[in-house]
Amino acid sequence: MKKWLKSVGIKTIKTMAETAIAVIGTNAVGITDVDWIGVGSAMLISGIVTILFNIKSIDESEVV
């Protein structure tokens, strides 16, 4: 379980970073033009979805 949590944590962080890069890259000309609330919101949603997809993929036979 500890290994799974670490793996999901890493995947979630990477996905959230990729989302931030995509949102910032499409909306901003300069650092002050970035909608930071929108970036944070998109990152949070992508993190939640990543965790849910990983929970869905748990094989019930492997759960102890």
Provide structural commentary.
With 64 residues, the chain is mostly helical. The chain has one domain (8-56). The protein contains 2 helices and no strands. The protein has helices at 2-27, 36-56. α1 (2-27) runs antiparallel to α2. The longest helix is centred in the N-terminal third of the chain and has 26 residues, at 2-27. The protein is elongated and about 50 Å long. The N and C termini lie close together (9 Å). The model has no long low-confidence stretch (mean pLDDT 87).
Q: Count of DSSP helices? A: 2
Average pLDDT reading: 87
Kindly give the count of domains: 1
Query: What distance separates the N and C termini?
Result: 9 Å
Low-confidence stretches: none
Global geometry:
elongated
> Which strand-content bin applies to the residues?
under 5%
How helix-rich are the residues, as a percent range?
Answer: over 70%
What structural class do you assign from the helix and strand content? mainly alpha
Largest sheet: none
Number of E-state strands: 0
What is the chain-wise order of helices and strands? HH
The radius of gyration over CA amounts to: 15 Å
Summarize the entry for a quick read.
This protein has 64 residues and is mainly alpha-helical. The chain has helices at 2-27, 36-56.
